[in-house]
Design brief:
The chain has 340 residues and is of the alpha+beta class. The protein has helices at 6-15, 20-24, 95-106, 148-154, 180-185, 229-235, 257-263, 288-296, 311-339, and strands at 2-3, 40-46, 66-68, 72-73, 79-82, 86-89, 114-121, 126-131, 137-140, 165-171, 174-179, 198-203, 207-212, 218-221, 244-255, 277-283, 303-309. It starts with a strand and ends with a helix.
Length: 340
Amino acid sequence: VVALDATVADTLAANGSESLASSFGEGGGAPDLRIGIGDTVVVTIFEAAAGGLFSGEAGSLGAAKSVNLPPQPVARNGMITVPYVGPVKAAGLTPAQVQTSIEAALREKAIEPQVIVTIADSASTFVTVTGDVGSPGRVPLNLNGDRLLDIVASSGGSSAAAYDTFVRLTRGSTSRTVSLSRIVEDPGQNVFLQPDDQIFVFKDPQVYTAFGATSQNATYPFETDKLTLAEAVGRAGGLLDNRADARGVFVFRYEKPAVYASIANGDKAPVPQSGGVPVVYQLDLKQPTGYFAAQRFLMRDNDVIFVSNAPSTDLQKFFGIINGGVGVASSTTGLATRVN
């Protein structure tokens, strides 16, 4: 059981949710798009004068000083072929790097060669978008760079509310999930995409359950990106004046071991279960600071709020049982007297 105060609430807010920015790079420019296997490239070679390897004969009228090699796909070994040079590595390099490599190989063979390498058709600079979008599929990346929201929008977006829509970005072996509304609100989460990124958009309405000494025991939807404990209790009708113990407002949830370590003050963590470390947060609304903590404590999906009964309520129940027994005994005595 962890006493809930403003410090704990702020620590959880800073460590509780996943971040695209911290995992895939915050800010910065668009990544350089590199030539990949299967891309079709065109190599154009220029010479300073006629009579070279790739230009017309010297002295001929209108002699060309350049040549466009036929478009060719990058082979599975990552190579392209250039006459008088042979195989040239292209996969994983930028067009400018391939240009420099070809120019260096032709320097002793051609007349002051200059090379331009262009990507005629890209088969490798794609991202894959699936899930709850209008047009799932593979989407090509632009040379000026595409951010996450750009690609989601170009795929038709999601029909669900932003606070119920989540985006999972997978790059290599790393995968992170954040809500669409958070990406919209926080520019740092709208990261640049890289080739072969996988984007999965899905609807997942967030809910919590309130029971105990509240006006209405039920499961409630968040219907917002950020829901505080104070708002959650208010939606449940608040605490019952004649039953609730204001010192006993509890929130049950599972936390990641690293998150629990940040709030445990050195206490040994319970044995983690499949969902994480089971933690119970206790809020004391008898203290004025408890209301500020409730306003800063952010609810999470499937949280459980329990409001305990006041000790006087249990005492009243006990007296009710005793009084009920006395009443039965009195009735029995009266009946026996009449029978006699």
